[in-house]
Amino acid sequence: MATMDTTPSDAIAPIDDAVARAQALALWSQGVPVAVPTETVYGLAADATNGLAVARIFDIKQRPAFNPLICHVSSIAMAEAFAEFDPMALALADQFWPGPLTLILPLKKHHSIHPLVTAGLDTVGVRMPDGHVRGLIETFGKPLAAPSANRSGGISPTTARAVVDSLGAAVSLVLDGGACPVGLESTIVKTDGNDAWLLRPGGVPADAIEKLLGRMLRHETAEGAVQAPGQLQSHYAPIARVRLNVAQVLEGEALLAFGPARAAHSDRAVACANLSETGDMQQAAANLYAMLSQLDRWGAATIAVEPVPSQGLGVAINDRLRRAAAPRSAIVENKAQ
Ligand code: TXA
Ligand code: MG
Fold it and tell me: How far is the CA of 145 from the centre of ligand 1 (A)?
């Protein structure tokens, strides 16, 4: 039976400690990535204008360089220095920032974002995170490029400990802000002045965005004309296989449950975690990654997942579960390193 490792890590320091925050700012100035809590998941953050610093993020995560990073800002003014806001994008930023929404915007002609951040695209992903980290960005005075602080393809971390479990000694400092309240990555929306596309469902439900814009969001086309390059089929994957929408549990499986009613033969499960006993979507989102990791540590070959309704945050939860369940040859090799 696998047990939880509770060894303290030297790399973890509380974000409300002024010394730890000063250390993070010093590391950023030296081009060293630092893991930080956001309301969605922990990010591995570095100076978005420093190519070497950004390269270190890709290296630590073993992330393919075609997959661009999100720039995190502390104000709309900071974003306007490098990105073009159309009226729709501005309305979205006004309403949902700080918060779990990333806007894909055209880069301005003259800007200081390193091309590695955008993987050479002429657009840039921008978001204003909530909480302590926003103050840190303001003090640093420059945008921070930050992907989720996990090995590429793995489960996103929602605690400081999960960052260390995924990245190990490769990360010098993890600022600990406790468990991330949203627990799912930001919603990604691209606007072009006329239309708005949903590139990734996430912490802001699509219907809230559609309500504000007074129109339906368009979805990625089959031809892939508009897409987020990082939306690989297999992603957010535990080591175990993942079986979705189960009506019954098979011998030896671990069970990721949802709501008050259990799948048949749930007594067969070698381990069980419930995303939300009461069927609360926010609670389920906040628990998703930590519970997938927890069940993975039991070492079962398969995690069986009960159905989660595709409403509100359930759309993003099901998106992540589908990717966790997808075939994953290349990703498994990555995780083994
Ligand atoms: O909540 C979040 O968004 C977290 C926290 C740390 O902020 N970050 C996060 O980053 O999820 P990451 O790197 O795991 O996912 C970023 C996604 C990728 O799918 C990437 O392809 C997409 O954003 N993206 C970034 N820039 C883009 C661009 N210019 N055009 C299209 N997609 C872009
Ligand atoms: Mg990620």
Answer: 10
